[in-house]
Amino acid sequence: GEQHGHINAVGFDTYLKLLEEAVRELKGEEAPLEVRTSMNLALDLRIPPDYVAEERQRLRAYRRIGEAHDQASAREVLDELSDRYGPPPQAVSDLVEFSLLKSLAGRVGIELVERRQGYLNVKFHPESRVDPGALMRLVQNTAGAQFTPAGVLRVPLDGQAAPAAVLAVLRGCIEEIATG
What is the value of pTM for the model shown? Predict the structure, then answer.
């Protein structure tokens, strides 16, 4: 009865998450880093109405895409969309890639990714799982890249404007600096 009251107060999913964290803590295991990543890439990432015409179905597709946190689940969503509506246009593939990158960035410990004045600005959480050596190699090997005193990685986009190109640059950066 007491637990039921807690579940009602915080919601079932949050309750399960809190319970998992408590069990991990009691076992002496390290809790995985979970950072809510904000990404502002100034890209038009949406499902075209001519691909999924019905608004409710489009909203459902957005939700499914947002739940895709790894390549397998992304492939499943794309296969499902392909079955229902035909081959997905590039805009849908870009949206799926955005969702995957946002999830990956959160696991690595990236708080914010912003696109400004031809650069991707990547801000890290203080407990991020970034390989410092890989970060320095990325800065050294990428012309125009810098790691600011404020702890922000700035990576030039070299005129890349297409969503797929911007997302590819971001994926390359995250994968290069992630430690697992």
Answer: 0.80
